[in-house]
Amino acid sequence: MKMALLDYGVGNLYSITCALNRLGVEVKTVAEVKEGLDQDALILPGVGNFTPVAARLAEEKEILYDYVNSGRPLLGICLGLQILLDGSEEGEGRGLGIISGRALKLPSSVKTPHIGWNRLSMVKQHEFVDGIPEGSWVYFVHSYYPSLEERGLCLAETDYGLRFPSIVGRGALVGTQFHPEKSAEAGRLLLRNFLKMVKR
Fold first, then answer.
1. Is 179 noted as a catalytic residue in this protein?
2. Is 114 a catalytic residue?
3. What is the DSSP string of 19-69?
4. What is the pLDDT along the chain (200 residues), one digit of tens a residue?
5. Which residue in the list 78, 126, 142, 157 is annotated as catalytic?
6. Which entry of 59, 92, 181, 185 is annotated as an active-site residue?
7. Are 177 and 140 in contact (CB under 8 A)?
8. Is 126 a catalytic residue?
9. Domain boundaries, the chain
10. Whole-structure pTM over 0.70, yes or no?
């Protein structure tokens, strides 16, 4: 199996590549979406700032929209999930608008960024979360969270100052606010589930 990892100037490319390699996946790092269209799936990674990523992907919005609408599998991780939204409080720029909603700043009542392990509260069944136990621990690094207009896209939530969507999904489009490649067994299971989605 081959997957395209979109390099738009953010971190965590190495860790997600290593995690997928361990699962037998060949990863192709691409600078543009069109370079990865011959792969089995596309991953939008993310550690960085919304505004430069929004500017970088603005010219690829149409091709990404067509990719998702065709039913091909896409996984957005952290900022890679937030960029699928309409926009973000983090800064200027329009998101891809593939998922209706905005990234909002975590409340001032908690320390930001939210770094470390936190738990998943399962909300809705989807093949991406098959076998994920209630209360599974996963690893976060973020100051903003996805606020969804469509509640039905939320597959799992996490509490940190408020309850926010930590896994979203619609068909072959899925995203995590945390880093599955750093989330031990729960993260490995999510990545394996994504591989199953890609194979079908």
1. yes
2. no
3. HHHHTT-EEEEESSGGGGTTSSEEEE---S-HHHHHHHHGGGHHHHHHHHH
4. 999 999 987 667 899 999 999 999 999 999 999 999 999 999 999 878 899 989 888 889 999 999 999 999 999 999 999 999 999 999 988 999 999 999 999 999 999 999 999 999 999 999 999 999 999 999 999 999 999 999 999 999 999 999 999 999 999 999 999 999 999 999 999 999 999 999 98
5. 78
6. 181
7. yes
8. no
9. 2-199
10. yes
Structure tokens at 84: 């699928």
Q: Out of 114, 126, 142, 179, pick the active-site residue.
A: 179
Amino acid at the residue 74: L
> The domain 2-199 is classified under which CATH number: 3.40.50.150, 3.20.20.150, 3.40.50.300, 3.40.50.880?
3.40.50.880
Q: How far is CA 59 from CA 34, 53, 75, 88, in A?
A: 12, 11, 20, 18
